[in-house]
Specification:
alpha/beta; 35% helix; CBS-domain; four-stranded mixed sheet; 142 residues
Length: 142
Amino acid sequence: MNIAFFLVPKKNIIFLKENATMRQALERMEYHSYSAVPLIDDEGKYVGTITEGDLLWKLKNTPGLTFQNTEDIVLSEVEQHVQNLPVTIDAQMEDLITRAVVQNFVPVVDDQQIFIGIVRRREMIEYCSKLLIERRTESTND
């Protein structure tokens, strides 16, 4: 199965540039009810995923940092505690499933490492569920 079938293109998702501020990240994540968002650099390359936990740890471990002055901290200064590894658009379904065990979404890049979208865990689970149901139906019809 080609993973492009499951791809949610970059234009349809929320992502942030690594030079965005903590405040921008917090506000966008709250507005969209996301707990993690892909980060890209100025060239459009995927550089990681920022999570609520990363932002909370930065807030906790930075003396004097409050919500009001999070606009002074750029996301490239926030340590990422979880590495959401991307796959290329020609990856196999097995690669996606392996990553989906620990990631809510899998970032997808092209052969130049340019971020082109994500595959959400939900779609992968639905796909696997459909396959299981089809196999069960086939085996009961035999």
